[in-house]
Amino acid sequence: MTKKDSKLRFLANSLPVETEAWRGSPALDFIRRDLALTGTKEGCREGDCGACAVLVGERLASGPGQAPWVRYRAMPSCLLALGDLEEAHLLTIEGLREAAASGITPVMRAMLDENGSQCGFCSPGIVVSLTAFLLEGPPYSIESAIVAVEGNLCRCTGYGAIKRAAARLVAEFSSLPTDFLARVAELEKAAVIPASVGAFARGELLPANVAAAQTQPPGSQTAQPAPGAGPALVIAGGSDFFVRNPKPDRREPLALLARDEDLRGIVEFPGGIEVGAAVAWRDFFSSPLVRSCVSGIGAFEGALASILVRNRATVGGNVANASPVGDLTSILLALAAVARLRGPHGERELPLERLFLGYKKLDLLPGEIIASFLIGRAPGRVFNFEKIAKRANLDIAAVNSAACIELEAQPGRPRIARARISAGGVAAVPLLLEKTSRLLVGREAEASTALAAMRQAMAEVSPIDDARGSAEYRKKILGRLVLAHFIALFPELEAELAREVLA
Amino acid sequence: MSRILESELNVQGLTAYIDDSDEPRGMLHGTLAVTPCARGRLLGIDPRPALALDPSVRVLSAACVPGENQLGASVPDEPLLVEGEWGFKGQGIALVLAATQAMARKAATLVAIDYEELEPVLDAREASSRGSYILPSRTMASGDTSSAFARSAIVVSGRTESGGQEHVYLETQGAIAEPREGGRVFVLSGTQAPSGVQHAVARVLGLSMNAVEIETRRLGGGFGGKEDQAAGWAALAALGALATKRQVKVYLSRREDMAWTGKRHPYSADFRLGLDAEGRILAFEADYYQNSGAACDLSPAILSRTLFHAASAYRVPNLRVTGRMCRTNLIPFTAFRGFGAPQGIFVMECALDAAARAGGWDPIELRRKNLLKEGDVFHFGQPLANCHTGRSVDRLLEKSGWKSLRAEMDSFNASHALEKRGAAILPLAFGVSFTKLVMNQGGALVHVFHDGSVSVSTGAVEMGQQVSRKIQVIAARALGISEARIRVESTKTGTVANTFPTAASTGADINGMAALAACEEIRARLLSFAAKRLGAELGNLRLEGEFVVNGCEPTDLGWNKLVDEAHLERVDLSAHGFYATPGLFYDMKAERGSPFAYHVYGCAAVTATLDVLRGTYRFDTATIVHDSGESLDLSVDLGQTEGAFAQGLGWAALEDLRFDSKGSLLTDTLSTYKLPDIHFMPEMEVEFLADAGNPKAVMRSKAIGEPPFMYGIAGYFAVLDALRSARPDLAPSYDLPMTPEKALAILTGAGAPAKGAQDASALAPPKPECAEGALS
Lengths: 503, 776
Ligand SMILES: Cc1cc2nc3c(=O)[nH]c(=O)nc-3n(C[C@H](O)[C@H](O)[C@H](O)COP(=O)(O)OP(=O)(O)OC[C@H]3O[C@@H](n4cnc5c(N)ncnc54)[C@H](O)[C@@H]3O)c2cc1C
Ligand code: FES
Ligand code: FES
What we know:
Oligomer: heterodimer
Helix content of chain A: 25-40%
CATH class of the largest domain in chain B: Alpha Beta
Number of helices of chain A: 20
Strand order of the largest sheet of chain A: 2-1-5-3-4
Strand content of chain A: 15-25%
Radius of gyration of chain B: 27 Å
Number of domains of chain B: 3
Number of helices of chain B: 20
Number of strands of chain B: 30
Structural class of chain A: alpha+beta
CATH superfamily of the largest domain in chain B: Aldehyde oxidase/xanthine dehydrogenase, molybdopterin binding domain
Shape of chain B: globular
Strand order of the largest sheet of chain B: 3-5-1-12-9-10-11-20
Radius of gyration of chain A: 23 Å
Shape of chain A: globular
Bound molecules: flavin-adenine dinucleotide, FE2/S2 (inorganic) cluster
Number of strands of chain A: 18
Distance between the termini of chain A: 68 Å
Strand content of chain B: 25-35%
Largest interface: A-B, 85 and 81 residues
Distance between the termini of chain B: 66 Å
């Protein structure tokens, strides 16, 4: 341990905080009770409403050439482990008020001018999300502003006024600079953000033990439990952990992975990329390396949760969670990802499909964690992801499916050299549809192939009923999703497949 | 100062809701040990395992209730804490108190409950077949339906289902009770009905009402869910506070709120609609099976609104509708925006949908042909006055460019195999007033302080509908002063007594009128003082722009001076105002009368795009023409219109409340129960009808809260329309909400309706019997 003591230190708005509170408790309670900052609301405690959204600024070990590299993101504080605030800047609605002498920032003003607050319970969260939107930088568009508040539910307004408020902000701030510090300075001048942001970014307002933090990235010391202490309680993004444990009892040792720099890199190796398990979904989908390795993948980010959750949830957490409907799990299965596991007895590698032993049961040894995923490059590969849920956005899938198909040029239609089709929500574990995938190999990418794959996929699964969909529905929709893969990847098949669908 | 003070606090996070109050040392947190199954009999409770957890734990059962262990306001069928047999899962058996909320929750799970499980009844029709009702059925009728059906060229019939709906007010339910000296109790309650809570608390504690004070600062949303159903939490907190002499807070987690509180009533219905060869409605019959849940709650009043709105915005000369309140073993269903009207209107719209198909009529023309007109008489005998339905529909069709829109959609559909667009309209005529006569009254207390600032208290609860804004406007106009001088206070039972819930869209109508009356009284006193002081003719004086104006001449009496001098001259600067909506009467036996002060009109068009491959859909546009009278504040009315529409659209095409086969709520979290998010909502365009001043409400305005909810129903039919483009042969089972699962079932032909759920499709011969025979 490099630290003098076990105290957690961070900056809450403009005040330094030092606490012995348990790092594994949700930040929301600490904010509302210990700090008495009740502007942050509790609406659900499961990441679904955004009423608890706060801004978190953190100092990253590496960044795109900026020094210092500081990043602010909005996240649901009900899913945020208190310990993840180590050395960070927590900015709540009370902190935002400090930006303006009247207490009313331009973001709040836009909400007022459009009458975007009715009962007001969602309003602080929306103000936080829209402020994060401005802080995160250009390009500013109404579409991206809407994405910025997609994780904030409002039961009163129907969102019309909130969209209009967002549009006002886009118009007002469209020319903010791309450079982070320059933008921070402008936003401070415009009274959108308080001076504490700039001060934190410039390293002026750091908690006392900053020196320790700079030599030792936060998290990595806690990730390795002391020998003999027994396996640690592991929390990554917390987006599943805190939903299942809304008020967890204190437990040690505790391993917080989300800020562990060893676990959140995305790097290249010969023939592929390695994605750290603690990489947040947001970073996964926006990573140039991931995007170049899996062409077109960036387009699917919006199908997963909300931006607030994507800022928290990690790639590894989605797999470790072992939910049969994990979206990233489906994606990684189709991509033939290999999990790299790290434990007290060293490291091992396992093809992802072999990690799932049964419902919510993983082949992980005591004390072992998922460290990263290896994803190979395959030049002729095309990729598609499909997800069906009751609500098109911010919903867990009834069924999802990813398809990776490697094509071989030949006279006439291309031939399928390799294929992997995965499916979630149709079995107790996330499935690689092995028979369906095998059936495709050697066939031409044509309508009859798609139909055969559809039938095989439906025969290959035996789903169950639940609140998200009946067994029959799941089977049927999986068949449709297989066709959807073909139509997305081979648009020329649409007319023919459409005839089949409508027959 | 901003126009809307409340909102200004909201956006800064300064608004204090229940859970934002300080928790003083010694405060106890309460929660419930609840019934573990839908129906059962309590044999015994053993609190010992819970008590062993911590010295702070207390367990209070029905035996500890000093007064009457009863919440049921109209029918005494809902004990606060279970004794003997119980009727739904999630009902309180014991109040469990502890030093922290987490500990109370843990202790509650440790209370050992000895019980016998009984077979539940979950389905409304099944309950009906067993004769299990809350109250006897109710029938409204006009004309002679059987001869009208015999004369009909086309008769369609069918069955409809509409689902329940979770309120999901973002602030969950709760209360904080504080023992006060002399055995009195104060409760900070998240309720739409402070006086109702006061009565419930007094009843449960065996206190007189003057020993109980309730304050409601504001709600983080109500939507009807905190009308009757807030009483229990306040009563529990008060019970705990009196028992322990400590402050007690009962505040529900989202999951508890979803599992333990009532929702919109699911309905099942049978309809029959007869039309002449030109498509004019001749007769309508419907039987509504309201799933009332395990206790009465507000079910009878909700059912009456269903029956009053059975014909929706259409003229139906011969009508006969019967409603049954079926007692089941689900959570007692309760008020939710629209209050039974959406359920009734949906049935009528289904009947028209079936008729349009059977008759080959254009759905819009069919609706227009049958719209209510000035002078028409509703089936309950009330004539229609100041009717704007036709005007709204015409304006909507013009505004939405309906003709070209339809042509555009048809050509899109012809050229796209896997995407289909659809559209539907919904005309509206919604009656305003509480259907229970006594509730149409309200009070206000206005103080003018001698510095010129004004405080207005009414019975209205602020819950985001911005009623305080409207009252502020009314008071400022009545006194001729700036809005900035007016503060609208929280709602307190000791300040304005014997109030009725802020509900039925009447909040601003009734309380605004009461505030107006009080302001007018103060104004009269001030002006008569000014007449003396100025030696002017009283009749020539008025208050305007913060000055007393004499005819056309300004005087030196500005508001501050006026108030200050009047005060020195011992003029009373406070007044109580009262309002009882005039002209209402209803004869329950004859089912005839004038239950509504007026109606609200309008029309909406919703368009949707269906993904034929995946069975998913999205809403593209919503165009609304709405009648809000002479609005007191257009931005408030716009927010209410958009917000109500969003809830209606959610109910119609997204929100899927599910119970399992044993009566446990499956959708008890926001991850399983989905409500509209920002992406779900279409582009909305709202226009308020011009020249629609309403002589029947305060300052010619109109109620706004509930009516626009109905527009969401158009979303259901827009998707149905798109589904028909893909499957012209489709005979849907009218089953709301639409979901992607149902859409796919329809698309793949598996949507074959369950027995009895078809709509008639063939052109039916005049004889109704034959028409029904054609169902198969
Ligand atoms: C509002 C909301 C929306 C959601 N939407 C989606 C969605 O659209 N699609 C979807 O797939 N999921 C969704 N989820 C589910 C959830 O977010 C994911 O499963 C998420 O990936 C979990 O990651 P995490 O980092 O937050 O995990 P955590 O909650 O931190 O951990 C989950 C579990 O995995 C263990 N764990 C975490 N990381 C590791 C590791 N590296 N090695 C070993 N064990 C580990 C933890 O101990 C814990 O038991 C949603 C959740 C919420 C709250
Ligand atoms: S409380 Fe709802 S997202 Fe955190
Ligand atoms: S204003 Fe009430 S939830 Fe948004």
